[in-house]
Design goal:
By secondary structure, the chain is an alpha+beta fold. The chain contains 15 helices and 15 strands. It has five domains: about 100 residues, NusA, N-terminal domain (N Utilization Substance Protein A, Chain:P, domain 4, 2-Layer Sandwich), CATH 3.30.1480.10; about 70 residues, Nucleic acid-binding proteins (OB fold (Dihydrolipoamide Acetyltransferase, E2P), Beta Barrel), CATH 2.40.50; about 80 residues, K homology (KH) domain (GMP Synthetase, Chain A, domain 3, 2-Layer Sandwich), CATH 3.30.300; about 90 residues, K homology (KH) domain (GMP Synthetase, Chain A, domain 3, 2-Layer Sandwich); about 55 residues, 5' to 3' exonuclease, C-terminal subdomain (DNA polymerase, domain 1, Orthogonal Bundle).
């Protein structure tokens, strides 16, 4: 039996990646447990098991005196076998945990295995199962059982049943990692990703910078005939991607971030990190974007609050900015106001729910639109389905 155990140890170390030392400790612990059942050990007496990793021989000691009357073959074949298997399984779980713990912040591949209450269980190439929670799924993606999937490793938790690997298709760094896989200049460090702002399923803005003046960072990311960025767009189910050239000059950076709109003038408040952006009337809708998306993403990308204004004296139509609410100005410059709809005015939201939302910091419809579902579900009594309905009603209320 000793030779059989040694062969099993070597096989498991070779095929499963479990260290020999871990297995030997598990076997010694298992044999000690089994030996106690056949040896009379009185209080105060010490029982010890030694497994020789070289010869595979097993020895038992009681009070440092070797016991020669034990049939370890019989013990290992019966009582100890199940304990050894359990210990080996625990060691395998640790190996899996450590392997995926090291992969946090990277992309892994797998196949869709099954669906559980809106969550997607992913088979990670037979090594483990990952969970893609509903909150981490891109709203416009629809996967089917057996479909191949790539996801960002967001978190790894150690649990009794084994490691729980939390995946994401919504995280901004998913886009970052896809660019690193697709663009050699990013992988080797020549081109650096400075910042990312993303609204999953809709649009992403990514700013890039080159350490080598001869390498165009935007061109490197776009690729020949746009092949590199097209591959990423296809992976993200046609999500739009704006590649912005990073610039130390904040004004130039803002201009690039607000593309495709053309900016006429920028006034900076460096202390408060606020910028007043002036555009021509015909550039206003481009600068703002649908439901304020363009300016909102540009603001996140740069880390500045952007206030978009026009040179026209005519009042502008209300546009959802996601910034502070301001009334239209009667002066020559007109502030584009945010839709000022409070949660009390949203159809389908009762008085108590409105009070709970306001207490949690969601005072307007725009607050709800900008929030993730997971933030709304933190409010007591609001589940995921209810949160989705509330957000949908808020979006409906903001439509002109």
């Amino acid at each position: 039996m000793s030779e059989e155990l040694l062969a099993v140890i070597e096989q498991l170390e070779r095929e499963r990646g479990i260290k020999k030392e871990v297995l030997i400790k598990a076997i010694e612990s298992a044999l000690l447990s089994a030996t106690r059942k056949v040896i009379d050990v009185k209080p105060g007496e010490e029982l010890r098991i030694e497994f020789d990793p070289g010869s595979g021989k097993i020895k038992a000691y009681k009070n440092e005196k070797e016991i020669n009357s034990i049939d370890f073959g019989r013990i290992a074949a019966s009582t100890a076998r199940q304990v050894i298997i359990q210990k080996i399984r625990e060691a395998e779980k640790d190996v899996t945990f450590n392997e995926f713990q090291a992969k946090i912040g990277t992309i892994v591949s797998g196949t869709v295995y099954r669906f559980e209450k809106g969550n997607i269980v992913v088979d990670l190439l037979g090594k483990a199962e990952g969970i893609l929670p509903k909150r981490e799924q891109s709203p416009k993606e629809d996967f089917k059982q057996g479909q191949r999937i790539r996801a960002y490793v967001f978190e790894v938790k150690k649990e009794g049943r084994g490691p729980q690997i939390i995946l994401s298709r919504r995280h901004p760094n998913l886009v970052k990692e896809l660019f690193e896989l697709e663009v050699p200049e990013i992988y080797d460090g020549t081109v650096e990703i400075k910042s990312i702002a993303r609204e999953a399923g809709e649009r992403t803005k990514i700013s890039v910078w080159s350490k080598n003046e001869k390498v165009d960072p935007v061109g490197a990311c776009v690729g020949m005939r746009g092949n590199r960025v097209k591959n990423i767009v296809q992976e993200l189910q046609e999500e739009k991607i704006d590649i912005v050239r990073y610039n130390d000059d904040v004004k130039e950076y803002i201009k690039s971030a607000l593309s495709p709109a053309e900016v006429s003038e920028i006034r900076l408040d460096k202390e408060k990190k606020k910028a007043e952006v002036i555009v021509q009337d015909d550039q206003l809708s481009l600068a703002i974007g649908k439901h304020g998306q363009n300016v909102r993403l540009a603001s996140k990308l740069i880390g500045w609050e952007l206030d978009v204004r026009t040179k026209s004296g005519a009042p502008a139509e209300p546009v959802v900015l996601g910034l502070k609410t301001e009334e239209p100005s009667v002066k020559t410059e007109v502030v584009v106001p945010e839709a000022d709809i409070t949660v009390d005015q949203i159809e389908g939201i009762g008085e108590k729910t409105a009070d709970d939302l306001k207490e949690a910091g969601f005072k307007t419809a725009q607050d709800l639109v900008n929030a993730d579902i997971s933030e709304i579900t933190k409010i007591k009594g609001i589940g995921e389905k209810r949160a989705e309905k509330i957000k949908a009603e808020a979006m409906k209320a903001l439509k002109p």
